[in-house]
Amino acid sequence: MLENQQKLIHTFGALAELGHEVAHKQNFQEMIRTSLHLVLGSLAIMRGGVARFSRFGHELNMLVMRGLGEDFPLSLSLSQEDERQFLTNGLAPIEVSQAKILPLLHVYDRSFDPAKIELIVPLIIRDEMVGVIFLGKKATGEPFSSYDKEIICAMARHIGVGIAQRNLMAELERRAEENRHLYENLRMTYKDTVKAFAAAIDCKDKYTEGHSERVGKYSEIIAAELGYDDNHVEGVAIAGYLHDVGKLVVDRNIINSPMRITASENAQLAKHPSVGYEILLPIHHPYAEVPLAAKYHHERLDGRGYPDGLYDKEIPFIAKIVNLADSFDAMTTDRPYKRRRVAEEVIDDMHRNAGKQFSPELVTAFCRAMLKELTNDKKQKNFRRLLGKDYLNSETVVPMLKNVLNARNATSSLTLVASE
Amino acid sequence: MNIEPNVSVQLVGETATVFAGDYINKLSGEKIERECQRQLNSGCKTLVVDFSRTEIVNSIGVSILLGVIDAASNAGAKVVFSDINDDTCELFETLGLIGHVTVQN
Lengths: 420, 105
What we know:
A: alpha+beta, six-stranded antiparallel beta sheet, about 60% helix, B: globular
């Protein structure tokens, strides 16, 4: 009686420890290794192993073994009949001596005999096979009693749940990775489509080839300088790429006119922001403000812009960024009716028009980004690549940018003092 | 706190005595197993596991001791369990470990 009581305490101790192990262990391999120790130690079984079932390869892959010998296979192929029998059997331990009908035992008899396997326990969780436990003989040499089998069955259920949880996590991780990959592909496709669209827009205008792409890049520079996160910077760049999409419906002759256009032609051209908005609005962009940038990129802070003559705070911020990028490109590229302006003039123009046409904050950010590049604070050469390497003369442009930034800082301090 | 348990070994001729700690669980048990395997690999013919300081052996400890017995049997060595307390001795008897070793008190 005392003997049975001690055995009972020992076995229940093992069961309790196994439950804790499966529920709390973070390391799967360690959990399986400890679980096998607990199964073997609870009933003093001389040897054993735990295998995980792969339903893709229809095989059992050994996760841990004790005393099965070096020749025991690390992977065992299962036939459909093996799987069927295991599923029908459930979690109950199968005695090898009475289960010669299992094809597995015939295929691997040369491995099972020396390893002295006596029991095979299929790990069936929610009608799915997740693995198998192989067990050798007991240290007493006695056959497994029905009580022993009940204990093994309870422990097998714990281990099976542990493996099923791990499988579930692996599947979730795989799907998450697949989704990340799909999302990345989709994003690349979106960006490529946007760039192709930008090229198509610029095709209409032989003088401004690459304009949309440059506006995209300048917008990106401004957003990055403002400290936006990568996603936000990308959204602003996309808005720059697509800002002129409305020009697709404007007559090519108006766009390419070598002289100043007439009032009626100008009226047609002035429709392109609203048309662009209509084109972009039905598209589900990852960045919601893209259509707004197209619609309002010709608005000015002083209300003299178009199409709606909005004032400062009424203009979406993204449209202010694209407006500055667009104007900068217009001033720094040759047009049918005028040559591009020198850098110093362009910087002066931006400075003078800060607060009227352009947002002062954005002029500051743009000048700061340019100064950083020219003074080698940044390794990137965005401006030189977009403007040509000789356009920005550091000797004259750097002092000018510093003056503009000092003036702008002084203005913001005064504004701050005034508002206080 | 994860403290490496102290398992000491005494070697006399071909007999190695491994002194187990107060509680044989996974941490201490695996150290005993590694030490026993090392002694068997060095040609030890009698492996004495001294339990004089051992109060409790859990299921993991039993599994590890079975591994020691198996390894010794494969190496043609004899295993001796010495100074087992009454409770542990009773447990080993119930589980059938005693049949594979020589008990010495």
